[in-house]
UniProtKB/TrEMBL annotation, chain A:
Residues 14-137 form the Fe-S metabolism associated domain. This is SufE family protein. Belongs to the SufE family. It comes from Microcella humidisoli.
Automatic annotation (TrEMBL), chain B:
This is Sulfurtransferase. Residues 31-138, 167-288 form the Rhodanese domain. Signal peptide: none annotated. It catalyses: thiosulfate + hydrogen cyanide = thiocyanate + sulfite + 2 H(+). The keyword Plastid does not apply. It comes from Microcella humidisoli.
Amino acid sequence: MTVLPAALAEIRDDFLSFSEKDRLQLLLEFSNELPALPERYREHPELLERVEECQSPVYLFVEVSPEGRVDVHATAPAEAPTTRGFASILAQGLSGLDSAAVLAVPDDFPLQLGLTAAVSPLRLNGMSGMLWRIKRQVGEKSAA
Amino acid sequence: MTVAFDPSEKFQAYAHPERLVSTAWLEAHLGAPGLIVVESDEDVLLYETGHIPGAVKVDWHTELNDPVVRDYVDGAGFARLMSAKGIARDATVVIYGDRSNWWASYALWVFTLFGHADVRLLDGGRDRWVAEGRPLTTEAPSPTPVDYPVVKRDDSGVRAFKEDVLDHVGKPLIDVRSLEEYTGERTHMPSYPQEGALRGGHIPTAASVPWSRAANDDGTFRSAGELTAIYRVEAGIDDADDVITYCRIGERSSHTWFVLAHLLGVPRVRNYDGSWTEWGSAVRVPIAVGAEPGSAPGR
């Protein structure tokens, strides 16, 4: 059973309300909003998981609190704005949810943003890879 | 009209020095009549974050490919694209991009399929331009549409298909991927989705010469002497050879294709754009694993 959380649904609707060309601008805005990595991860890069599906070096780390609250942290270089945009959407859309809600996010969410033509399916693989890894980490870190 | 060539000393040692321009030359020639600068990146948003003033964006994935079939646009599609970008048939086109010009090389190779005569690469690409603190702008250019002729795409000269490669096994074949890709090893985690191919390894008899050996750390091409040592001496390629390059989807091998064809002047070099995503998923094609090239299967 998959359910799209409200924050991701809102992001999706925002993308779909724009023309294809303007969707790239919105992705760029997300890219610029990617939060900096918390200090504790900057000193411990080994905690971060490399997303191999992205050709740029992007790393993410998922925290699950004892109460089951999920926080997603990601880092990607400035010269990889598309990857940063993908990471930013997922970090903003998933952080604060409980782990069950994250696990229920549909795997094809990246394909629901209307970016296939403007970005290309191959590049969207990178975002699918991130989502897949986030869900896997949440699964591992939740005392299911 | 053709813009003057870059007389940089480094380029004069290459077989076709007219195929490269330096960052200094480009900055000095921005706005020259007949010059069009094109940015072609892996990252589809990078151009929007700032680009060389006046440069137009050509995206390999979304603009040079047919949207349905795994192929490039046809003559009419290319003419439409060139017209919209303000690129005349006789324009001097200088292409640059991210990641040591992988995608810029790929775009240049596609321009070659349509016989666009004067198309050059910016040595060092985007990273070098940025590193040197040269001007960038987020101002989008509005090119005046031009009338670009419909030219039939000619795949015979520089493009190889799977059938060509099957017949070619045993002749000079260069695999430009990383060694892990070449050997068929995979460093991946359990339940990790394999990217793009069902089998690992390389085309039998292919030599492993990773594309990055042709580039310096700053993304510029290595000197003519260094390239000669790698490709002519070590890989044993000479001018009589018929050479095919490949990688995973054809972008890194475009970089090596450019090196062989334009910097070393090997007359017959083709890029196999189907590359490993096609070969590694095709039924009953021969595959070799491990670090050795392997031998051609008996016919």
